[in-house]
User: What shape does this take?
Amino acid sequence: MEYRRKVKFSTKVSLVVCPVDDYTASPKSGGNIHVFLREHPGRPVRKADGYFVFTGLPVGTYHVVVQSDIYLNETAIVKLEEIDPAEPIVYISLKPNSAYPFPAGTTLLRAALRDSGGNPAPGANVRATVMSASCAGAKVAQGGVKKGLHEINLTNVAGKIAVGDIFLIKEQEEVCSEYCVITGVSKGTHSYQVAGPLRYEHKRGVLLLPVVETRADQRGEVVAYFRGAKEKIFDVKVEFSCENKIKIKELKMTEGEVNYLGIIQI
Assistant: This one.
């Protein structure tokens, strides 16, 4: 789901922060969300549609901090001189934490992560890749894609691909597979921009498998959520990483159910 939209602001507005719920892919208009700048004491004006508006800021670099009781805390670096003064909006994606009220029937993966000493591992990273070919989010289109490009043409797109979506470009030879993050969508075409140059060449028909990335909260608890599973049962490869150590688990997920892995020591 694409959440970007045109909004008009007065000339006094310096910066507008729009928190976006990563699960629903929609701006978050309610809830206990706090937005502030490390370099400036002024509080933003909170609008009913989810925007936080800062006015009268000197030109410079700011750390935008977003805190909430149901989302992981996020920090974004913003340079005012690099944003459009006519539409100075910064979108910050908020990943649900373990306290998030997911609706009934959501497909979830939960775990409690511990470091090598058995202590909670806040900030430990989790990457869950859907490995079932039947659950692919898209395929590389005719003509393939060349190494070094920041753009990829896709076909057989399942649903809608949005900015921030992550995929594994799955080659038969694992060494030639790679992850990509969607950074832009070309309207009216099947072309998508990706973060960083692609490291490998990919031919027509290569699958793009959905990926979920998140991290553990302050208690070491983590929740990964899967949207729109195309199969009742599907395979998932989960990578837990902390302190330069990685633990991998391969499991079968059932759509609409919660899979609790218990304590995972990395």
